[in-house]
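Researcher: Here's a chain I'd like modeled. Treat it as a single chain, no partners, no ligands.
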Amino acid sequence: MYNYEIINFWNDQDDLYVQYIVEDTTTNEKVNTIGYYNTADIECDYNMSSYETIQKHLLDILEKNNGVEFNIPKVSELSSLLKYVYDSICESESNMFYVDYDEWEELKDSDEFTEEDFNILKKEIKKYNLEDVISIDDKEYKICAYGMLQTLFNDDREKDNFIR
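Model: Modeled as a single isolated chain. Structure tokens:
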């Protein structure tokens, strides 16, 4: 049996992101994750419905997951660079994050990251099948990540829940 609690939700051009916590009532284990839906998925008019109505419909959808969230990778197991990208996406108002080549050099100069960190990131992109949500070494950006990245992990770190 699982309990679902919605922390927050936000709409980005009909992309509906839902931050929520799932608790396994047998083990008391918790998952803090973000789900993604289209506003048409929630069986009510997103633009005309009350906050409470939307939340109820979202909760109905989430409960159908029946604990599948316990199978997604944990943020605590990611490399420091992928955590940085993940956190930056979670804090982004635009659901996009990038590091251009000059910024990458600044991050290296300040000893935040190294080329080895970048090589590890490349391996993690393959390991977690993140090719659709993170691009690297394109013509404009060293790293470019998109909002769907935040939906692929369980943020199991000890910290206050982030609120958008």
